[in-house]
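To whoever is on call:

I kicked off a structure prediction for a single chain this morning and the downstream step that reads the tokens threw a length-mismatch warning. I double-checked the sequence; it's 191 residues and nothing unusual in it as far as I can see. Pasting both halves so you can look.
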Amino acid sequence: MNEQRGFTLWFTGLSGAGKTTIAEIVERELRERERPVEVLDGDIVRTNLSKGLTFSREDRNVNVLRIGFVANLLTRNGVAVIVSAISPYKEARDQVRRRIVDFVEVFVDAPLEVCAERDVKGLYKKAFAGEITQFTGVSDPYEPPAAPDLVLKTDEETPQESARKVLEKLEYFGYLWPQEAQETEYNWGSR
């Protein structure tokens, strides 16, 4: 298992698109496969690593670059890193992608209306009413990736189906052994 190299799996998309839900399913599967894994969730990182930043374009890019810096350190040390962050601007995402050699960009795509329906915090309602300014997708732009490694249409598939596609892509790229190969390796190693 130690021969597998680290990677950064970067989920980007609107708030409510399903990034965190899918990331949690993928994290569980990676842990079951005994991969060292760390999750960098945008909201948690903003609270702890990027406290004090505003939601201006510049500060959002700083936040993304900070997440990317930590992800790169972990990736270089063999960790499977899962990033779940809106990361609305292509420029910052592309900069992170250039810095991290083993980088997989996943666009978690859902229509704005679907994201707003899923919103349990009521943020979209406040944004539509003008109570929240600089809200991505409403009063601030979201720039979709031009060529992501994977697109998940979360209004058309379940979180489990989306997570399965992510795991298959990781296997395809060689970042994760197929489940059968891992079971065979484990059985051989225990004899």
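Update from on-call: the warning came from a stale cache, not from the record. Cleared it. Sanity check on the structure: Confidence is low (pLDDT under 50) at residues 182-191.
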